Amino acid sequence: VQLVESGGGLVQAGGSLRLSCAASGSTFSITVMGWYRQAPGKPRELVAAFTSGGGSTNYADSVKGRITISRDNAKNTMYLQMNSLKPEDTAVYYCCASNSFSFWWGRGTQVTVSS
Questions:
Q1: Position 52 pLDDT exceeds 90
Q2: What average pLDDT does this structure show over 50-78?
Q3: Please, which pLDDT band fits residue 34 given cuts at 50, 70 and 90?
Q4: How many angstroms separate the Cα of 78 from the Cα of each of 18, 69, 87, 103, 114?
């Protein structure tokens, strides 16, 4: 599985961005997909994730109500709609996918929120 993120950039506080993650390869084997982020000097943290069967969706408490994860199965693409962005949302955002045997990462896309 290959994952390629896009959509990052510089935005003012209160603004919005939509990140995309295009998946290719053996996407039929994926059972969980999600987004992580890593700010400078901090560990990588889960932002949001869902199971491929749509059974559950999880969000970090810090983003609930502001960020929505979604997918377009026909395009093999996952999205992260981020609204009401805050400077503390500044980080490199990584797309991830997994099944029982493997875990895949994208290369990341930078999101910078200015105050």
A1: no
A2: 91
A3: very high
A4: 10, 7, 24, 16, 25
